[in-house]
Amino acid sequence: MILAWIGAVLIGLSLGLLGSGGSILTVPILVYLVGEPEKLAIAESLAIVGLISLAAALPYARKGLVDFRNVLWFGVPGMAGTYLGAFLSQFVSGALQLALFAFVMLLAARSMARPPRLEATPRAPRPYWKIALDGLGVGVLTGLVGVGGGFLIVPALVLLGGLPMHQAIGTSLVVIALKSAAGFYKYALLLPAQGYAMHWELIGLFSLLGFAGSLLGGRLALRVPQASLRRGFAGFLVAMGALILVRNLPDLL
């Protein structure tokens, strides 16, 4: 469990340093270090990442760095999509969910290694109905495999929503918290019928340790070269994603 507690701090550290990556670490830690079943780990990861994101969003909100119009157009459809993804999870196996999760890890690694050119020439604002569709799609992914989607949301808010970077991060944290709450609520309704019970003490402890890690990560972010950090984290994600695929391949076959 000591390794699991260290992992909980690393979850928050990732959110503080990179603004994303928390759920990418949470699910493997819960499955391989704590020993949680796949479906339960995905549900609990939504609660943990949602609570950490909500706490981390408060300083941004106090500084006026949360765009609530984009929260409405991106976050509310995202909540609906997350609820739908959680509903669909009952029709797929835990092994398939982890395999999809591993695929998302590889996508995240590519995004980390080669982040989008957020400083590119400004383009015309994206129609709100398209932003809503983007939120819905990311939400379905969140509910199905348990990723908050920060590595997708922040670039979408900058490039498609036209937000400055700091405002996009603050807005993203609120969106992640809302989507995670919707997905966790649906899992809390579904899992008891499948024989699972939430471990609330684990959720609370991981959330507290993760929040502490996020505070540390926020301080370190000012001193660590972001490009090198992202490339190193991308390499870790590739290795972890490949390991998860290999371990779940026999069950899938």
In short:
The protein is an all-alpha fold and 253 residues long.
What does this protein look like?
Keywords: Cell membrane, Membrane, Transmembrane, Transmembrane helix. Its main location: membrane. It is a multi-pass membrane protein. It comes from Marinithermus hydrothermalis (strain DSM 14884 / JCM 11576 / T1). α7 crosses α8. It is globular, with a radius of gyration of 17 Å. The protein has 10 helices and no strands. The chain has one domain. The mean pLDDT is 81.
* Derived structural class: mainly alpha
The radius of gyration over CA amounts to: 17 Å
Judging from the principal axes of the Cα atoms, what is the shape?
A: globular
Largest sheet: none
How many structural domains are formed by the residues? Answer: 1
Residues in helices, as a percent range:
over 70%
Straight-line distance between termini: 32 Å
Beta-strand content estimate: under 5%
Mean pLDDT: 81
SSE string: HHHHHHHHHH
Subcellular location: Cell membrane; Membrane
Protein name: Probable membrane transporter protein
Pfam families: TauE
Membrane topology: Multi-pass membrane protein
